UniProtKB/TrEMBL annotation, chains A, B, C, D:
Key words of the record: DNA-binding, Transcription, Transcription regulation
DNA-binding region in chain numbering: 39-58
Gene3D superfamilies: Homeodomain-like, Tetracycline Repressor, domain 2
Protein name: AcrR family transcriptional regulator
SUPFAM superfamilies, A to Z: Homeodomain-like, Tetracyclin repressor-like, C-terminal domain
Database matches in InterPro entries: Homeodomain-like_sf, HTH-type_TetR-like_transc_reg, HTH_TetR, Tet_transcr_reg_TetR-rel_C_sf, TetR_C
Entry keyword Cytoplasm: no
UniProt domain HTH tetR-type: residue ranges: 16-76
Pfam families: TetR_C_11, TetR_N
Organism: Streptomyces rishiriensis
Length: 216, 216, 216, 216
DNA sequence: GAATAAACGAGACGGTACGTCTAGTCTTGGA
DNA sequence: TCCAAGACTAGACGTACCGTCTCGTTTATTC
């Protein structure tokens, strides 16, 4: 999180409380004001901290918000719910619950929008938000294979492609449902979605069966 | 697009050329600068127009960018490619191609991010961008039913839910692939994605079959 | 007042009522808003006239305000009050009364300020405001000479200088009293002032007497 | 001059050089552009200072110009020239010389015009420009009394009234001569004016003599 | 137990963009 | 040809934040 590169040991150490206060203040400001009206000066004031302290640790609004939002997604877990379908439903619901919070909604999407022109920012998002989520997918698949619900992967490249696809579909669908359609990703929706996804995956990786309407 | 509500007929009429120039300048600025560094003053200059002319017609950056981006999505079409799978692949590829353009990328996502705190903006996005896309889904389904690839819908509420689900999955997946994973939604990916989606849908709406690992 | 130079007689004639309405609206706006916040658009609205009509007749704010204020000073008169002192007191009081009106106060001074960089404006002020006042001084002197209160002028250049001096002293003192000192130029003050002025003038034009403290 | 009221000692102190540069730039702009075309943005640029720095210290154009012009009038002095008449002539010439400078001309009059609707501004003008001048009048009178040219004042209220009258007459006449008549207040004019003023005053305060033409 | 060195709060600094306002011109349709 | 209405270009307004800087002060470590 911090910028300070060299191993510094002399001088007054940075206040750990400041970090916590700043990130909390950032989330508070996101809730009240949203991304576009959030200002670093205001965050500093809310955190009881000088603007310089803030700039000493984060390069700008984007980085700060990504870190503030990443803490929310750190709550994601994958308890064993007994079946692949239940595991997926569970984690999708968790993801949807986080995304329903106002501080995540506007903050995350705006950061993603900015990341289209800022590779460092995209990398930061990937490292602190996306990859941990993808790890859950991997963990879920491993568990399903252990249960015998899924066949063991043979081709690792193919396996990586499949994980990426699943991840884009899951995360994308929830995000789109929540932000664009502005409808809740509630239990019913998640069940329908999981059903389609799972059937599609098993049928796809299964007998390589005919697609309906594919005449050849 | 314009703000002027009442039917006014006196006074000098608004320049139609200005609208065109402003929207084109907005897209140009989006490409060069991205959302966050785009300024209305700069857009006005590029369009060869005074700032007041711009503010007379749009309430702010958000509205302007939505309109500018909406014109891009107006290009979407659904030519009959002979099968449901081909139709879906075709339209997803088109959607991905538009989303790959820099003016769409940062502009659209930022507008969506803002729309989480601005209902009017969300409505504008829905009306000018989302709903036309959803119409394509409806058209595609009607065509597939005519071909006999899909059974006719019986329950209209259920039908609407399905369309919404499809739409969130398709649009969400492409967006996530493009913006978050930052990988191209190319032909190969689209084929994999379409395969999963289509198999999932037909299996789901079909025999209401067993989900793998669903123990009850 | 109007700009139109050539003798035009074709087309729709200009509305005479518009002139009156515009000047009245200008004074009204001067009272309510003062010079600096007076805008030509607002004056046009008050007068129920289009901005173009206004610009067709006056070159700008300065010219308009000078004309509007000049009408106030047109009220100045010099009835014969029987003595030079009474005449002076009378006209000074009239002048002070006009200057006490808010539309005159801020409008006139601002126009004078502008005239320091605009010769045409100064000429306009001189012609429509200053010279008529100076004529009153001439008239008063002629009347006093007729009464025998003042000796007849012999040197016309000297006479002109004296009139100019008197005029600067009278007008300047009243203006300064009213605007800078912000005290009313009431009857008591006018009497004191007139006394000093008149004694000074008669002593000065008289025996060319010793100035007190002039040791040469 | 500054706005900041409480004695603050934390934070970066204000740059003293900025004040100097801003006031100098203001005078420069007054000379080149005059009051009405002077813009604070331009002054800031000339002073090599940000607009915010300017607004942090002055409330607006009026206040800034008053302070800039006040520095000019700070040059006024009253060296002992040996006689009351010489003292008056000297200080009037000085005053006229300042008023002849273009930065004083348009700036001062415009500020006075504005002050008719802004009491704080009038107070500022009085405190920083008018009162120091009035002090010169008091000093001159004290010196004349010491010389025996003037009788000692008995009634203090009457004395104050006289000083005010003198001041309005002197300042008003010079201003009117310079700005309205647009003639130089040169040595010859000043001598004539001083002669009239002084004769009037001595005659007035003296034997309370008959005004010419005052029949009773 | 200084001395050192960095972090801290406060707030001024040079900038940039904002969204509004006014100036003065131009373009309609109607009188 | 004038008029009312209102859109147009141009540019200043005063404000808000940005990210940097200079202060004086506070707190750990190191000598």
């Amino acid at each position: 999180m911090q910028i300070r590169t060299p191993a510094c040991r002399t001088g007054r150490p940075r206040s750990a409380a400041a970090d916590t206060a700043i990130l909390a203040a950032t989330r508070e400001a996101l809730v009240e004001l949203g991304w576009s009206k959030l200002t670093l000066g205001d965050v500093a004031t809310r955190a009881g901290v000088a603007k310089t302290t803030l700039y000493r640790r984060w390069a700008g609004k984007n980085e700060l918000v990504v870190d503030a939002v990443a803490e929310l997604f750190g709550e994601l877990e994958l308890p064993d719910r007994g079946s692949l379908a239940a595991d997926i439903e569970g984690v999708v619901l968790q993801f949807a619950a986080i995304l329903a919070r106002p501080e995540a909604k506007s903050g995350l999407m705006a950061a993603v929008a900015e990341s289209t022109r800022d590779d460092a920012l995209r990398e930061r998002i990937r490292a602190s938000i996306v990859d941990p989520q993808k790890d859950l997918v991997l963990e879920g698949r491993a568990r399903a294979q252990a249960r015998g619900e899924l066949p063991p992967q043979t081709d690792p490249a193919e396996a990586a492609r499949t994980v990426d696809l699943i991840f884009d579909v899951v995360a994308g669908a929830v995000v789109h449902r929540t932000l664009v359609s502005a409808e809740p990703a509630d239990e019913e929706w998640v069940r329908s979605f999981t059903r389609v996804l799972l059937l599609g995956l098993t049928a796809s990786t299964g007998p390589s069966g005919d697609l309906p309407g594919e005449h050849v």
